[in-house]
Amino acid sequence: MLDKFVKTFYLFFIIMICIRSNAYAYIDPGTGSFIIQSILAIGGAIVFYLGYPIRLLKNIYIKIFKKKLKSSESTVNKLKK
């Protein structure tokens, strides 16, 4: 069953490659700027969305290692005395 589907797909693909026609279409400047604007909006949304969790994880990381740093500094200060 799957073999028949694959053969049909390949046949359809070869026919689509062999039969071609001209598109007579273009992308005007308005469409190009809309595409660029959409890409920038998606990128900005991703940065904005991931900004808060990254900041949260960074603060947790700093809190954990700040305690270790304080304890190691106090032992160093005790050794200096």
Would you mind describing this structure in some detail?
85% of the residues lie in helices and 0% in strands. The chain has 81 residues and is an all-alpha fold. The chain has one domain. The N and C termini lie far apart (83 Å).
In short:
The protein is built from 2 helices and no strands.
Radius of gyration (CA) equals 30 Å
The number of helices is 2
Bin the helical content.
Answer: over 70%
* Low-confidence runs of at least 5 consecutive residues: none
How do the SSEs run, as a string of H and E?
Answer: HH
Largest sheet: none
Whole-number total of structural domains? 1
Layout: helices, strands, pairs:
Blueprint: H1 2-18, H2 29-80
Descriptive tags:
mainly alpha
